[in-house]
Amino acid sequence: MKPQRFSITPPTGRSEIVVGDSITHLPAALAAIFPPTTRFTLVCDSGVPKTVISGLQHKLVAQGFSTQVMGIASGEASKTLRQAGKMYRQLAQDRLDRKSCLIAIGGGVIGDMTGFVAATYLRGIALVQVPTTLLAQVDASIGGKTGVDIPEGKNLVGAFHHPRLVWIDPSLLKSLPKLHIQNGMAEVIKYGAILDAKLFQTLEAQADDLLQGYSPLWDPIIARCAQLKAQIVQKDPTETLGMRALLNFGHTVGHAVEASNGYRDYLHGQAISVGMFVAGYLSSHLLNFPDLERIRLGTLLTKANLPARVRRPIERETLLSYLQRDKKAEQGSVKFVLLKRIGKAVSGQAIPEDVLDAALGMSGL
């Protein structure tokens, strides 16, 4: 696939998204954006192959850039204020200045964490995202949302800080375990469900092959998801108009499931899958979401080995407390994104208590 380019133009400056170009070409692209005096720190997920990191660092040095590498453990447990504090101190010791740049190389946790640190260190330094997981390539790396978790909820501390460049090389998924292909598939299915019925049909037709791991079949799908997110973010960059909130389909309950279990028991895609099953039930009861389309959604999630129910019951009072602290809640009232049909979603939906009770019960909550 020929590399595709999209862009977002928030007030802070242009954010470029490149999909389908090799990571080996990234240093030359950076040299076209940043002056030769720029100091780069590569913040790397522990799951990224060392050859990828060393190869990128070598090419950056060959371009004349000063570079350091900072390793961060993968997983939601790293996405904390404590970890941010450690990173601030390391950056200060390395004497990074306001013209320096952080390059996040890894999954969504590394992207969120590095983005938050870039947004707040010296009141904001440049950021480049190099996502290496499916979930990060189709969603988390794009749009400028950064954040960390606190015990009271997921992503409750954060900032909008758009990367100067998002470099998406789908071939980096070759080393990704099948479990994480399934995890990212949840976000891909979300895009089809809320915005693109044709994409949803493609996923239905190709799911068996896609779930085997990376192949060139993934390239146009990743590009389409990146394009859809860029379009939404461009129209509603700080989630104030209701359009960007569509991207939270399944996330209201999903984030509560993650937080209720201390971010240990569920991958993000698994948790939002439960959330999408709940939202599908709510959609059919409140917006006449057709039963056949609800079955299609559930079938595709199940084919990806994504759950409809939690593994163990979560105390309802605990779950509701996290729902009410969700970023999208208003004065304690929880708002949901629901479906009218595959490819058409609406945000800001208040849910009657009895209908929410039944929907949560269907998923073991």
Structure keywords:
365 residues; alpha/beta; Rossmann fold; Dehydroquinate synthase-like, alpha domain; 2 domains; seven-stranded mixed sheet; two-stranded antiparallel sheet; 13 helices; 19% strand
Task: Give a brief rundown of this model.
This protein is 45% helix and 19% strand. The chain has helices spanning 26-31, 50-62, 81-93, 108-120, 134-140, 178-195, 197-210, 218-235, 251-260, 268-286, 291-303, 316-324, 353-362, and strands at 4-8, 15-19, 39-45, 66-72, 101-106, 126-131, 145-150, 153-160, 165-168, 335-341, 344-350.
Structure notes:
This protein has 365 residues and is α/β, with parallel strands linked by helices. The protein has 2 domains: 4-175, Rossmann fold; 178-362, Dehydroquinate synthase-like - alpha domain (Dehydroquinate synthase-like, alpha domain, Up-down Bundle). The chain is built from 13 helices and 11 strands. It has helices at residues 26-31, 50-62, 81-93, 108-120, 134-140, 178-195, 197-210, 218-235, 251-260, 268-286, 291-303, 316-324, 353-362, and strands spanning 4-8, 15-19, 39-45, 66-72, 101-106, 126-131, 145-150, 153-160, 165-168, 335-341, 344-350. The chain has a 7-stranded mixed beta sheet, sandwiched between helices. The protein has a two-stranded antiparallel sheet with strand order 7-8. A hairpin with a 2-residue loop joins strand 10 (335-341) and strand 11. Helix 5 packs parallel to helix 6 and helix 5 (134-140) packs parallel to helix 8 (218-235). It is globular and about 60 Å long. The model has no long low-confidence stretch (mean pLDDT 92).
